[in-house]
Amino acid sequence: MLAKSMSEDSSVVVISMLGRAVLTVTLVAATLFVLLAPRSIGHSAIRVDWLVGAYSALTTAALEAPGAADVVVKPSAEETRYAVLAQSLAKRFNLVVSDTLDVVRIAHVQARQFGLDPLLVVAMIAVESRFNPLAESPMGAKGLMQIIPQFHLAKFSKFGGEQAIYDPEPNIHVGIRILKSYLLRTGDMTSALQSYAGAVADQSDAYTQKVMSEKQRLESALHQAQPQLRATTAHQSTVLAQDGQAL
Hints:
By secondary structure, this protein is mainly alpha-helical. Helices cover 61% and strands 3% of the residues. It has a single domain (13-246), classed as Lysozyme (Orthogonal Bundle), CATH 1.10.530.
């Protein structure tokens, strides 16, 4: 038996070693459908319903492959969450969905490592660079989180130096680390955000308001997708129950 650890937001689906190749093909097909369908359908709405339908159908097909048992696969509701956010951001900023999905995923992982709200970090990236990893300001701030390298060179040493500043993962990591340091110093997220923007003297807290407004947009996108997100989780739970009875 091959077992893998589960996260709280994951459901376990048991399939056969023989069916592993079938599942791999179906999951790849589902991923391609998720990433490519919006461009052919159009951006009139965030179409999470077809994501759920495609994933459910393809996963069921894989589970019906001969000889069920042995391999544990973890289709995660969290990935569906990332897809919803990526679709919303890609529509808003005219981005490539697959690239946006990668950044959203990295932001969530890195934010949680530092104990910060992932949506806040995603919102900061939207405000700072509109998800352009090559963005550069007149002041010399660079990358997704608009970091001025001369002030933070040491933080990039573990990633190979300053040249890593345009790489999404190091840039997001360092940006979150900077925000966290301000938060520990001030004890207040508004003060931390204003410090990050170099706008401590701005009594209107304009930068914080921009970030929070963007965060609200993201929360709204997730709220609108809740029926589909619940459907995905329910489907996975049903498949698990049926498979358990079969065993």
